[in-house]
Amino acid sequence: MDSLIEYLDGKRQLVNTQLENYVTANTDEGRVRDAMLYSIEAGGKRLRPILLLATIEAFRGNPSKGLPVACALEMIHTYSLIHDDLPAMDNDDVRRGQPTNHKKFDEATAILAGDALLTLSFQIITDSNDLTNDEKVFIVRELSKASGPKGMVNGQMKDMQYENHDIPLRELEDIHRQKTGRLLNFAVLSGAYLAEADDQVMDNLTAMAGALGLIFQIQDDILDVVGDSHAIGKPIGSDEGNNKSTYPQLLGLEGAIAQKDGYVEVAQNALHESGINGTTLSELIDYLSSRDR
Amino acid sequence: MDSLIEYLDGKRQLVNTQLENYVTANTDEGRVRDAMLYSIEAGGKRLRPILLLATIEAFRGNPSKGLPVACALEMIHTYSLIHDDLPAMDNDDVRRGQPTNHKKFDEATAILAGDALLTLSFQIITDSNDLTNDEKVFIVRELSKASGPKGMVNGQMKDMQYENHDIPLRELEDIHRQKTGRLLNFAVLSGAYLAEADDQVMDNLTAMAGALGLIFQIQDDILDVVGDSHAIGKPIGSDEGNNKSTYPQLLGLEGAIAQKDGYVEVAQNALHESGINGTTLSELIDYLSSRDR
């Protein structure tokens, strides 16, 4: 696990540096840039970019093709956090231990910084010198599908509609599959595509990514009950305060852990079935399942 | 002018039908789709798509290449209106004679519908069967640049920052060049690109588009002073209420009209210099300068 931590740190640093470069190079001085950089520099696990880069490496693909796509993906994730935190949405004041974008700046700036990050993500893909035009078209298409009105945005809408309502587990998982699963799936899918994986491998990796998204979400819910607020950077119990349905609430804490362990097995099996050299990916699955932040 | 009105109606209908098709085909039933369709179906002049299609026609280019790009462009324009109308931004309750998106739905839905339209615009370009991959990459790159943090988004940010402040004409024009000019410029640029125009023609058309954007904005400001609130679909004097700097305020009504006439001459000359068959474009310039809504 120590070597995985080092691996994660290295990749995180690579992604952070490149993200800052992209934002600085493609914005004018001023408030929009400041607000974009604020949320980009607020840190975060960089899980999606790392998953993408680790997938390319598992196929011994060209890592330079992965970096612009990884950064575009993280920009979209970051924009979604900025908009989700707004008062009209989840109304969160703190993220990663710091004021959310609209608390640090104001609502108008936060809306625009989110819009700008979303837009810039497609620009940096098409601007890249490391991708062919065929690759750029594939990536823009899949990334927009994953994050658009049949993907992440729809998941967030349903998440809000179910606030203050009881929700069956099946519906809850559908929401998570759209809201967080689609981007995680894109990370694996695009990494495999850029490394020229064949179709059967893709199917297995899609299954792995699907399980991974739910592992990630269940652990999020678990940490909101039993986690350390300092480590996770927001108050414990905020899901309950927001009247959000969670796994522990629907299944109990033990039940949620059992559900998560089931998905870990699904993910590990699918990865094994794919036949690729997935040591890092396998470690990542365990890491995400047991993370404390 | 009668034939221009017919031309505009025909193109508007073509674009409206295709926009609805795109939204319906690429969304799930539910609140996000409803809110997207609400703003898409609220009408509007469809100026940007029409300018794009008219430019392609001026070069006798393939109009089927223009339609997906025209619709993507209008989706981005529509998303920007939805977000600009939000309480945290311009706080407008009425647009085109109807409740704004967040009044009809709610703020969260309006934010997400805007995000979804922005994202979908890039998807429909990359999904199109009528464009080559090279064309798709060019279009996504230029459209994201025009609408992103060095373009439209930055213009809106500056517009908000100057609210309640006196602003010199030079600054005001810089804002308009970013906020509305960049998308109008994209319409002409992408139309000419898809019709395989050469570089010198492009330079003239860029000059024309630049002037056209300012003509459009000055006439907007003039209509806010002397227009018919029923025709323009919002109350007269709303700029003053919002403490926005306008041409009539900076130059007087006569001065604003003279300024506009100057830009009409610039636009007509640049079009003439380009040497293309620009009858419709020339009529469009005059129409935009004298429109009453």
Task: Summarize it.
By secondary structure, the first copy, chain A, is mostly helical.
Poorly predicted runs of chain A? none
From the 3D structure, determine the CATH topology of chain A: Farnesyl Diphosphate Synthase
Strand content of chain A: under 5%
Major β-sheet profile of chain A: 2 strands, antiparallel
User: What is the terminal-to-terminal distance of chain A?
Assistant: 16 Å
For the record, the CATH architecture of chain A stands as: Orthogonal Bundle
The overall number of domains of chain A is 1
Structural class determined from secondary elements of chain A:
mainly alpha
- Residues in helix, % of chain A: over 70%
CATH class of chain A: Mainly Alpha
Radius of gyration of chain A: 18 Å
Q: Taking all residues together, what is the mean pLDDT of chain A?
A: 93
Order of helices and strands of chain A: HHHHEEHHHHHHHHHH
CATH superfamily of chain A: Farnesyl Diphosphate Synthase
Q: From the structure provided, what is the oligomeric state, counting identical versus distinct chains? A: homodimer
